[in-house]
């Protein structure tokens, strides 16, 4: 089974539209036969992803570091425990054909930027998507453009990331 990694928020304080988009993405991915790999937490968008996967009987693997025991969503198909946050990120990418950043905070950004760097270096071979729902990732796009304009990043490396604005657009790019 092909798998897609989703990086996302663990906050319960976010606008419900982000969780609605996450649930829509889960349904679309599972309809195409993809399994999901995520951080597997029970809160925020992570929880919404797991709940939707369970609701539609989809396959969902959670990857968590040992120190987060007790924070996992117990309804995932499979839990993989790691020793560190770094090994967690590695485990989340390991068997995926794409990495998707949904709107999220500093943890989501950390996971996605590291994956972008690894893609640039040829150490990750999946596609990269940042769901730019209502312009959420416009600041990241602007930063990447600034890096290109100042010679800090090659245009082809900036273009490794696609910024679809809707789940439908993201799924069309993934196909």
Q: Brief description of this entry?
A:
By secondary structure, this protein is of the alpha/beta class. 43% of the residues lie in helices and 18% in strands.
How would you portray this structure in words?
With 175 residues, the protein is an alpha/beta fold. It is built from seven helices and seven strands; from the N terminus they run βαβαββαβαβααβα. It has a seven-stranded parallel β-sheet with strand order 4-3-2-1-5-6-7, sandwiched between helices. α1 (16-31) runs parallel beside α2. The radius of gyration is 15 Å and the shape is globular. The two termini are 15 Å apart. The relative contact order is 0.16.
Taking Cα atoms only, what radius of gyration do you get, to the nearest Å? 15 Å
Q: Which structural class fits the helix and strand makeup?
A: alpha/beta
Q: How many DSSP-defined strands?
A: 7
Through-space gap between termini: 15 Å
Which consecutive residue ranges, at least 5 long each, have pLDDT under 50?
none
Shape: globular
Q: Mean pLDDT, as a whole number?
A: 94
Taken in chain order, the helices and strands follow as EHEHEEHEHEHHEH
Q: Biggest β-sheet: count, sense, barrel?
A: 7 strands, parallel
């Amino acid at each position: 089974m092909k798998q897609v990694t989703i990086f996302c928020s663990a906050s319960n304080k976010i606008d419900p539209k982000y969780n609605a988009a996450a649930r829509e993405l889960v349904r679309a991915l599972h309809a195409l036969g993809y399994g999901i790999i995520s951080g597997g937490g029970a809160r925020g968008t992570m929880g919404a992803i797991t709940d939707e996967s369970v609701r539609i009987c989809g396959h969902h693997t959670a990857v968590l570091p040992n120190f987060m025991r007790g924070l996992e969503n117990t309804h995932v198909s499979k839990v993989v425990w790691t020793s560190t946050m770094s090994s967690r990120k590695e485990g989340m990418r390991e068997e995926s054909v794409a990495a998707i950043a949904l709107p999220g905070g500093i943890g989501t950004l950390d996971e996605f930027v590291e994956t972008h760097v690894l893609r640039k270096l040829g150490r990750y071979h999946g596609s990269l998507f940042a769901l730019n729902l209502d312009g959420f990732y416009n600041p990241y796009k602007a930063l990447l453009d600034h890096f290109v304009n100042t010679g800090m990043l090659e245009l082809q490396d900036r273009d490794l990331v696609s910024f679809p604005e809707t789940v439908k657009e993201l799924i069309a790019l993934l196909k």
